[in-house]
Design a protein that fits this description.
mainly alpha, Serine Threonine Protein Phosphatase 5, Tetratricopeptide repeat, 29 helices, 2 strands, 1% strand, elongated
């Protein structure tokens, strides 16, 4: 019997691995998606160093993307050490972690419940569901699959600890939990989920032996005392969760990712939360029209808010009523709700209303509900077993087919956002990114149309205003560019890029004094910005302040000795001042740095002729 069970577990595990590999095999040929992949890997100056002492230290102190997740950074550093700029390798690491997590989920559930087929169905749905394509395929979401692995590992080690509570086993659980927190703070709710698992399937409410029983000796052994002991057992986990949650909020705030209450009032966030809970369930059942970004609609229709809330209350009441006869329903349902709570937007990060990646761990709870309902039905009526098995196969294969279709949208940047723009409404992120694609392809007219749509959909979208301004610069429509950059500064007066572009555009409209003021602000706060100093020098030159202009051009060369235009401009100033030797040296360097530049070559010839004329005539 034991050998048969072992063969069964091995067979299901191999099948899970095969299904996952078949589904995600194509991602080895996918590239980077310049929607956070550039920030996380491709253009990150620290990650592209690979594993060094300095980059490892940076991983532990960095908050640049609004997360403190050093283990995730270390995984990216290791990947770059191995794969360099081969994006397929980075994708494949995500797939490998996801595959291991799916098999581990099956093993853990099977060990806890003794039901390999129900556990296998749960793990299979986790492995191949279309809602998980985003987490697995998107390199930037390494934090999802890595933290998901440690979530499942923590549950597995917790089960081992429960079977024989020792301090060593307890510490192993806490270590896995801590590593998960170092991957992504999504694990903040795991201690509460462990309490759910204490009720089912671990049955610890009857006799909750813990490794701290000697510290919690009670005269009476009541239900309340048992629950209290289980809660106290989780206190180190809850403490770490609280600290990690606070750190996550501070990191997001430092990155400017937290939406203010003025931008998105609390009532809109509370209204969106129940709608998102139901929307995820609907997308689980009907996983089509999935997008990488779902714009926040603002105030949801009241009927949708009330209806979603009533459905949540109704299902919650129903699973509580079934808790004695079907505890898996309550555990699965509350697993879903509790693990989803941190990402429901009460503390809003970004401008989205929901995200497929947020379902990576929460949907395990729903998959448990589905699998165990089918398991119970099969146990009650043996005649239905073939039909139930067929239903499970249809769910898994149907999910695989839809997931493979969803995968095709991740082949490149343009396809991803064309699809997002097609299946959502008023998607400012999709429009902006499609505009970026059009701009790179020199389809400036199309880019302008996309950027105008983006700012129409979200008038306070700074990036779209900047990009629209850049298009006007490309079209030499500098007055329109000035208006766009002024709007960007109105939205975000801190970021210096806004002021630099405004100063640059003002210069081309002839407003030299105002241009100089904007560029002066940039160099005062960013002294090593060579481009800002160069154009400030140009503005000073137009104002007739040649000494100040020369000073700025010299600063440019201090920062960037290979700036050809700065060499050329200093040469012109020196030549005008009668210092032809110095002018010739700078012109020669400019020509070396920019071979084929006709203007610089002419300036060099003129300076040489001037030098020739300065020589005294030879005596006959």
């Amino acid at each position: 019997m034991e050998n048969k069970r072992l063969r069964q577990i091995l067979g299901i595990g191999l099948l899970l691995g095969a299904l996952t590999l078949i589904l995600y095999w194509p991602v080895q040929h996918y590239g980077f998606v310049e929607f956070d992949d550039d920030v996380y890997v491709e253009k990150n100056p620290w990650v592209t160093r690979g594993i060094t002492v300095e980059s490892a230290a940076w991983a532990f102190r960095n908050l640049d993307v609004g997360f403190w997740h050093p283990l995730t950074w270390l995984s990216h550093l290791l990947d770059f050490e191995v794969y360099r700029y081969h994006a397929g390798g980075h994708h494949w690491t995500n797939v490998q972690i996801h595959l291991v997590s799916a098999i581990l989920l099956f093993i853990v559930l099977s060990a806890m419940t003794g039901l390999p087929w129900a556990s296998g169905l749960t793990a299979a749905l986790f492995a191949v569901h279309p809602l998980h394509v985003e987490s697995v395929t998107w390199i930037s979401e390494r934090k999802d699959v890595l933290s998901g692995f440690f979530w499942i590992l923590t549950v597995g080690l917790y089960f081992i600890y429960v079977r024989k509570p020792t301090v060593a086993r307890y510490l192993s659980v806490f270590a896995a939990f801590s590593l998960g927190m170092l991957s992504k703070p999504m694990l903040v709710t795991l201690p509460v989920v462990l309490l759910l698992l204490d009720a089912w399937p671990l049955q610890r409410l009857e006799s909750p032996a813990t490794c701290i029983d000697r510290l919690l000796a009670f005269k009476k052994d009541t239900q309340a005392v048992r629950v209290f002991r289980l809660i106290m057992e989780k206190m180190p986990f809850l403490t770490l969760s609280a600290a990690s949650g606070v750190l996550a909020i501070l990191a997001q705030e430092s990155h400017g990712a937290l939406a203010s209450l003025e931008a998105l009032p609390l009532e809109l966030r509370l209204a969106n939360a129940p709608v998102a809970c139901i929307a995820y369930l609907w997308k689980m059942v009907r996983p089509i029209e999935l997008a990488v970004f779902y714009p926040h609609p603002g105030m949801q229709p009241i009927w949708k808010v009330v209806g979603s809330f009533l459905i949540l209350v109704g299902v919650t009441a129903w699973v509580i009523r079934q808790v004695r006869t079907a505890p898996h329903l309550a555990v699965g349902w509350f697993w879903y709700l509790i693990s989803l709570l941190p990402v429901l937007g009460i503390i809003q990060v970004g401008s989205h209303s929901m995200a497929d990646r947020y379902t990576y761990i929460p949907l395990i709870g729903i998959f448990i509900m589905i699998a165990w309902v089918l398991q119970d039905a099969a146990q009650r009526r043996r005649s239905l077993r073939p039909a139930i098995a067929a239903a499970g196969c249809v769910m898994v294969l149907g999910s695989m087919i839809l997931a493979s279709m969803q995968l095709t949208y991740w082949t490149d940047y343009r396809t991803l956002f064309e699809h997002a723009n097609r299946v959502t409404e008023r998607n400012h992120i999709a429009c902006n990114n499609l505009g970026v694609v059009a701009h790179r392809e020199d389809r400036i007219g199309d880019a302008v149309s996309y950027f105008k749509q983006a700012v129409e959909f979200k008038p306070d979208y700074r990036d779209a205003w900047l990009n629209l301004g850049r298009c006007h610069v490309a079209l030499q429509q500098y007055s329109d560019a000035v208006a766009c950059f002024r709007k960007a500064i109105e939205i975000d007066p801190v970021t210096l890029t806004n002021r630099f572009l405004l100063g640059f555009s003002l210069m081309h409209t002839g407003a030299m004094d105002e241009s100089a003021r904007e560029l002066q602000q940039v160099v005062e706060r960013q002294s090593d910005n060579d481009e800002a100093r160069f154009y400030l020098g140009m503005a000073r030159l137009s104002q007739g302040r040649k000494g100040d202009a020369e000073e700025q051009f010299k600063e440019v060369l201090r920062i960037n000795p290979n700036h050809a235009a700065a060499h050329n401009n200093i040469g012109l100033l020196l030549l005008a001042d009668g210092r032809s030797d110095g002018a010739i040296a700078h012109f020669k360097r400019a020509v070396e740095l920019a071979p084929g530049n006709v203007t610089m070559e002419d300036n060099l010839r003129k300076s040489l002729l001037t030098k020739e004329k300065e020589r005294p005539p030879c005596e006959p």
